[in-house]
Amino acid sequence: MIQTGFKQEYIEKLVRNWLFTGEYGIGDTLPGDKVLAKTLGVNHLTVAKALRPLIEEGLLERIPRRGTLVRKTLLPVTSNAVGLVMHSQDQFYSDMVSEINRLLDPHNLFPTLINEALVENTAAIGRFLDRMVGETRPYGYLVLGDMNFSYDKFRNEPNKFQNTVFLLRYQAEELIPHSKYVLIDYKDIGRQAVKYFAKRGMKKILYPAISETACKGVWASLQFQVMQGIREEAPKSGIFFDELLFWKTFNGKELKQELAMTVQKTEPLFGIFTWSDSHFCVIVKPVLDELGITPEKYQNLGNFNTFHAVENNFSSFDLRISEICKIAVDMLVGNTDERNVILKAKLIER
Length: 350
Hints:
Layout: H1 7-21, H2 33-40, H3 44-56, E1 60-63, E2 67-70, E3 77-78, E4 81-85, H4 90-104, E5 110-113, H5 122-132, E6 136-137, E7 140-145, H6 151-156, E8 164-170, E9 180-184, H7 186-199, E10 204-206, H8 222-233, E11 240-241, H9 243-250, H10 255-264, E12 270-273, H11 277-290, E13 298-303, H12 307-312, E14 315-318, H13 321-333, E15 340-343, E16 346-348
Parallel strand pairs: 3-6, 4-5, 4-7, 7-8, 8-9, 9-15, 10-11, 10-12, 12-13, 13-14
Antiparallel strand pairs: 1-2, 14-16
Helix pairs in contact: 1-3, 2-3, 4-13, 7-8
């Protein structure tokens, strides 16, 4: 029951808000006057008086035996801002943001980028999204779907976030029906990695993972998806995959100790895959060097194809950022009807 204020004014504002948020769209039928009256604890004549200004404005229409139909909505004006929820530091991500900015420019759209310090904080992402929606709404959103993204907000408020494209990755259990996707097939990276090592005569593959102790499920880990591909493909190529090393490091075991124990039991000429080029150069290679494992005794394969791979002359996976950004912007502006595109990474051999 409405306890304070003018009941008629309250009801009018309530219905206006329904039209503003898109809870009721053009062609929808509002609950009947008697239903609203019972729900709100007022007389049905009060409901009728409250709806009269909205009818006079042409927002609603009374149709005999059908009820009160929505003829216009009060959805906020769309701006030319595009919310970017993604990392922006390091070469890989800064290149992605620059490419998106270049592609948006011909459409007179400009990116509004979340602060890098907030991009892994779910609550902070939610506040950023709330600030983006006010008297006007952004043209849309381009989202790098990390594990800590506010997926529930997008899923539960479809009218606010209809024009959204997730690019490169998506780390939630189920897709959001009203969103679009252009993603990389991470499982295929694992399959390609096995074939790469098999071609070079490797008989064993090591995959020291980055710790993900807070992982919410296997669907939330891209490292796990790559590992699945390696695990499935390795037996077909006659290669042994040391899955135990992956799980120990994935679950937080100290990498140096676990890698040392594994390598000491491993014959020379083994393949080693790392989630990123930098992880190999900064973390893994120093451990191998300390153990006296020289590059002649192993083949390494990286990911993201950054300057680390170029300068150190090792093969790496190109995640096709230029293509992903182009497809994502085309989806955003309506230049394509595709809603879910999965690309395979390109192996750059050196």
